[in-house]
Amino acid sequence: MVDPQVRAYLDAAAAAGIPPVEQLTPQEARQNVITAAPLLAGSGPELPRIEDGRVPGPAGNISVRLYSPQPHGSEPLPVTVYFHGGGWVVGNLDTHDALARHLAQASGTIVFAADYRLAPEHPFPAALEDAWTVTRWVHEHAAEIGADPDRIAVAGDSAGGNLAAVVALRARDEGLPLRLQVLIYPVTDCDLDTESYHVNAEGYGLTRAAMEWYWNHYCPEPQLRLNPEASPLRAANLAGVAPALVVLCELDPLRDEGEAYARRLQAAEVPVELARYPGMIHGFVRMFAVIDRTHDLTRQIGGALRRAMAAKGVAEEAREA
């Protein structure tokens, strides 16, 4: 059953008469998201420290924004590296500003948001390379930003969840310890033929046709989509990756692939917290101004991050051994 606030949002969106994304250019789609963001999310809480910066990347500087629940100069804080959603085509630091503020407040961590390169101007693997570069930079330069290099998590929604999942796989392979990966209705596979892709194909915001459009821009060569760094559900081995919080929405085309990824993590003996939100749609994590349950989700993510950061990490256990 559709949540009443979700229904009101969907009805209002339909009445606005905005063309579906697959009928737009990337530039038009980006502008629509920028225009809608403050109406859906509000302004977010005030924080004592918000700083814009740049991280050297493989194709130039990557814009980043730091959100801290404490002033600079206090004890080093855990840090959550965040990758915004938007099908790898739309979205930026501003569209996810309110979410980053809420997450910093709820989690007690620094939220370090990355403005990775977008497709189709920069197709796969550009976004991933930027996401990995920022994560590695945070680990290596943690002291400069007031963060603890032994307490790092990655997080993202939708396409950002895809990036977070793949960064977690790279981190395992490169020996960069992560406390948690927060995957909010992540894209985990290029196969658009799951049950949820059919029952939720249209009528609930994100559509199957829209996902085809996003994949065509991000990874125009179909064969490349089978690469586990594009479709992490196809990774040969998930053992040893960071524990995960996986968030799923009932009325989301991506629901089943997110569920499948969580099950594969569990089969690989990775600790997984699976959060299912009935009546919710893709994108609701940013809808603070229109859907009350968005605040419930933020609190759940914040709690998961607090618990993960409070536990002893690999480095601490090694020092005590």
Descriptive terms for the model:
8 strands; eight-stranded mixed sheet; 321 residues; globular
Order of helices and strands: HHEEEHEHEHEHHEHEHH
Residue-averaged pLDDT:
96
Could you give the distance between the termini?
A: 52 Å
Q: If strands are numbered along the chain, what order do they take across the biggest sheet?
A: 1-2-4-3-5-6-7-8
Tell me which oligomeric state these chains represent. Answer: single chain
3D shape: globular
Annotation, overall tally of beta strands: 8
Strand percentage: 15-25%
Secondary structural class: alpha/beta
Rg from Cα: 18 Å
Count of helical regions: 10
Task: Give the fraction of residues assigned to helices.
Answer: 25-40%
> Runs with pLDDT <50, length 5+?
none
Largest sheet: 8 strands, mixed
Topology:
Blueprint: H1 4-16, H2 26-41, E1 49-57, E2 60-68, E3 77-83, H3 97-107, E4 110-115, H4 126-140, E5 147-157, H5 159-174, E6 180-184, H6 195-199, H7 208-218, E7 244-249, H8 255-267, E8 272-277, H9 293-310, H10 314-320
Parallel strand pairs: 3-4, 3-5, 5-6, 6-7, 7-8
Antiparallel strand pairs: 1-2, 2-4
Structure description:
The chain is α/β, with parallel strands linked by helices and 321 residues long. It contains ten helices and eight strands. The protein has an eight-stranded mixed β-sheet with strand order 1-2-4-3-5-6-7-8, with helices on both faces. A hairpin with a 2-residue loop joins strand 1 and strand 2 (60-68). The chain is globular and about 50 Å long. The protein starts with a helix and ends with a helix. The mean pLDDT is 96.
